[in-house]
Write a structure and sequence with these properties.
Blueprint (H helix, E strand, L loop, with lengths): L4 E4 L3 H12 L4 E4 L3 H11 L5 E3 L3 H6 L6 E4 L5 H10 L8 E4 L5 H13 L3 E8 L1 H7 L2 E4 L3 H14 L2 E2 L2 E2 L9 H31 L3 H11 L7 H11 L9 H4 L9 H12 L4 H13 L2 H7 L14 H34 L5 H7 L11 H10 L10 H23 L5 H14 L5 H12 L12 E3 L7 E3 L1
Parallel strand pairs: 1-2, 1-4, 2-3, 4-5, 5-6
Antiparallel strand pairs: 6-7, 8-9, 10-11
The protein binds 6-phosphogluconic acid (6PG).
Length: 475
């Protein structure tokens, strides 16, 4: 048994991860349900390094040096459970099973407990960066026991993306923490994509700009604070011309966004935790709205009552959109990090948010220059309760608040939907407010359901006899 790590499930992500391990000098055991994929990996990419192919799961496991490290890269869900069930009787105490798929973290918690009972380590790990990242260096978010990370960490750090020589991989926390953080990463990815889409729509509708022109604006933005993978690919996509029609490619793509579910999970979990992740939620619902075909067909008759949009200073408008995009983006991250903090506190995960920002700087879909600033913010104050209130971000976002308000107001006046821009601004004004109208909500609740309220001038919980003489009593 000489393989240092094994990969089972050789669809594109598994294949590329296996190649990445091999390219870093590891002897890699490879296995797939149908042998054809294993054979073609070795035939096509044998010169990447040292592969040990096996037809059966038993031979695959036998080819691994102990403690065995088996990476499962299959479709999240039932397939993962089936592979685990096959592996359990073949493995021995101390072996490490790594699930690198987009698993839902409650499943990871269940599997971790199950494998622990067998004396095995289970590492649920987020892997971001798509096919390209898997091959050339992804961002890796491993959970599980600290002990398993001692064995596994160096290998994963080795194959991960590097930024300034620092690996985009670190131990996240126990059981489901790695997959949880990957889930929130994807939620932020949804928000980021929606915000970019709204910026594109504003430029298109406000300026009547072509895809080509908007692509140039994004390319310009990518030179500044907004520099990121998603802005870069947006510029690239907008410049692309459809071969068949000769039109801009985006103009021939159907406007219905799909999803595989990680954004939905993020929002569901945030509701359970009571954390307002409005940017991610609006982004997820915006995808749902785009796919609400009967409603959209029926909705075409709705009156707009909006005027013709005339923008006199194009350059100023473009700069306003840029500032609004940046500010809304900070809100989405601020909310996502709140969710990580809340789950970490509830489940005892002890997640270091600054470290998460650090491993998202490279390799992953949301990689961006400004993640450096987020890491710095949490280094300044590891207990930071609101990322927006870090002095750097307070100043940066503060400079754009006027622009943000103008953009949201103009969008509303001109009938352009900007759910993520608008809700992010509402969140900003909400957390900033000295006093929110929640006082009235509490009074109403007490009125119709004796749900009680607290007072601003003394401690305690109170109830007013609304139907009687309206005296107040301690509840
Ligand atoms: C990544 C991506 C990856 C995948 C998303 C797409 O980090 O590499 O997030 O996980 O592309 O799951 O999600 P939707 O299909 O839901 O848009």
């Amino acid at each position: 048994a000489r393989a240092q790590i094994g990969v089972t499930g050789l669809a594109v992500m598994g294949r590329n991860l296996a190649r990445n391990f091999a390219r870093h000098g590891y002897t890699v055991a490879v296995h797939n349900r149908s042998y054809a994929k294993t054979a073609s990996l070795v035939a096509d990419h044998g010169d990447d390094g040292d592969f040990v192919p096996s037809e059966s799961m038993a031979d695959f496991v036998a080819s691994l040096a102990r403690p065995r490290k088996v990476v499962i890269m299959v479709k999240a869900g039932a397939a993962t459970d089936a592979v685990i069930a096959e592996l359990i009787p073949l493995l021995e105490e101390g072996d490490i099973v790594i699930d690198a798929g987009n698993a839902h973290f409650p499943d990871t918690r269940r599997r971790e407990a199950e494998l622990k009972a067998h004396g095995l380590h289970f590492v649920g790990t987020g892997v971001s960066g798509g096919e390209e990242g898997a091959l050339n260096g992804p961002s890796i978010m491993p959970g599980g026991s600290p002990e398993s990370y001692e064995w596994l960490g160096p290998i994963l750090e080795d194959i991960s993306a590097k930024v300034d020589g620092v690996p985009c991989c670190t131990y996240v926390g126990p059981d489901g923490a790695g997959h949880f953080v990957k889930m929130v990463h994807n939620g932020i990815e949804y928000a980021d994509m929606q915000l970019i889409a709204e910026a594109y729509d504003l430029l298109k509708q406000g300026l009547g700009a072509s895809a080509q022109e908007i692509g140039e604006i994004f390319a310009e933005w990518n030179k500044g604070d907004l520099e990121s993978f998603l802005i870069e690919i947006t510029a690239d996509v907008l410049a692309h011309v459809d071969a068949e029609t000769g039109n801009a490619f985006v103009d021939v793509v159907l406007d219905r966004a799909e999803q595989k579910g990680t954004g939905r999970w993020t929002v569901q979990n945030a509701l359970d935790l009571g954390v307002p992740i409005t940017g991610i939620a609006e982004a997820t619902f915006a995808r749902a709205l785009s796919g609400s075909v009967p409603q959209r067909e029926a909705g075409r008759v709705l009156p707009a009552e909006s005027g013709a949009w005339e923008i006199s200073d194009r350059a100023a408008f473009i700069e306003d959109v840029r500032l609004a995009l940046y500010a809304s983006k900070v809100v989405a991250y601020s909310q996502g990090f709140d969710q990580i903090a809340a789950a970490s506190a509830e489940l005892g995960w002890n997640i270091d948010r600054g470290a998460m920002a650090r491993i998202w700087r490279g390799g992953c879909i949301i990689r961006a220059r400004f993640l450096n600033r987020i890491t710095e913010a949490y280094e300044r104050n590891p207990e930071l309760s609101l990322l927006l209130a870090d002095p750097y971000f307070t100043e940066q976002v503060g400079q754009g608040v006027g622009a943000w308000r103008r953009i949201v107001a103009q969008a509303a006046l001109n009938g352009v939907p900007t759910p993520a821009f608008s809700s992010s601004l509402a969140y900003y004004d909400g957390v900033r407010a000295e006093r929110l109208p929640a006082n009235l909500i509490q009074a109403q609740r007490d009125f119709f359901g004796a749900h009680t309220y607290q007072r601003i001038d003394k401690d305690g919980v109170f109830h007013t006899e609304w139907t009687g003489d309206r005296t107040e009593s301690d509840a």
